[in-house]
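Per-residue structure
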Amino acid sequence: MSETIPTVGRLPVVGSALEVGSDPFDFLEGAAAEYGPVFRVSIPGLSFVCYADAKLVERALVTERDRYRKDDRERDLLGGFLGEGALTARGERWERGRRQVQPAFTPGRIAAYAEEMVGQTERVVGEWADCEVIDVHEEATRLTLSIVASTMFGLDSLEEAGTIAERVDAITDRFAPSRLPVEIPLWAPTPANRRYRRAAGDLEEIVDRLIDRREPGDEDLCATLLSAMEAGEITESEVRDQLLTVLLAGHETTAVALTYTLASLATHPAEYDRVAREVRSAGELSARTDLPRTDAAIREALRLYPPSYLLFRQTERSDTVAGYRIPPDTRVVCPQWAIHRDPRYYDAPTAFRPGRWSKDRERPDFAYFPFGGGKRACIGRRFALLELRLAVASILRSVDLEATPDTEPSPTPALTCRPDGPVPLRVRR
């Protein structure tokens, strides 16, 4: 057993900062190819070990999960905002919160959301004019916010959608790397930190207003949590924390995934035509509608552009992986981005090829994990996948979307793998 984990870039003081700052995504792919499945990355203020291998990710998330916990850094960065929500809570509070949120995400409840998902999509698409060039990321954000508001909060309209999107931009941009990435604590009075704190406060106030506006008697997540609060099972602050988490994570990651799916299809006309033909011959859209080509396109977009591109853990106890001893309290990163593009698991790994999912090829389970995995896998996974397939189907059966010379999205590694600017598509009716 070796004690020395290979370290990427050993420059004095700055470590790997220059390489990470130049192109974080390229850095992850290159480091995995050069250093193997386990390597260390250091930048000023932060050091972690990367598990760039599907079997090692499975070990950290499933088979040896008792040796690992959620990374303390995640709670330090987001806990002040999301409190005891599903993303940041620990231990018994997480278990209790999960039990309270679960009823909103059962298969039966998710199927019941289908009509609302289709209706909200048709409303947004109905506002697009023939020959108009839309920013598909902006429109996807508006749509997913509307769907969260209607299904989780029981609201028919969301006049705060623009404000929420702006505040979420400030939250996510706080985590975008600089050219010389240095881990800056949240208490430091930087412009990004000030914007983050203002945005977090504004979103808390918006959630309070959404709670006040909801109609009594609705069977949505908000109603479920308020009933649990009235029964003394959870506190008022826990209700707000869960709803904040759903509002942020429930729309942002899905908007990003929808953006990349539509942009990838528009820039690959043959794939676009296959999906368009399928959805236009599918009949009424529901949770049961069979859309295999659509599902494959979404799956492929999530492979190439996973909204959550890094998953963080921390060792509770020591572990031995790939011949290296990983001491307790070591930060561990499981990189969806690098593993999803690893040639060991995928032919032509950087190509958009939805057809790869219809072929019989054995891959390790965690060669693909856009929603995480194990005990703390994303509780909204089925909701998000249904929302994506119904949104894509509703859009492409109503309009054609054409790529422009500027359509190719350029991902940026902020809190999510969101585009670094507008993603234009031309609407044809």
About this structure: The chain has a mean pLDDT of 88. Residues 150 and 342 are 39 Å apart (CA to CA). The first strand starts at residue 38 and ends at 43. The chain is about 50% helix and 10% strand.
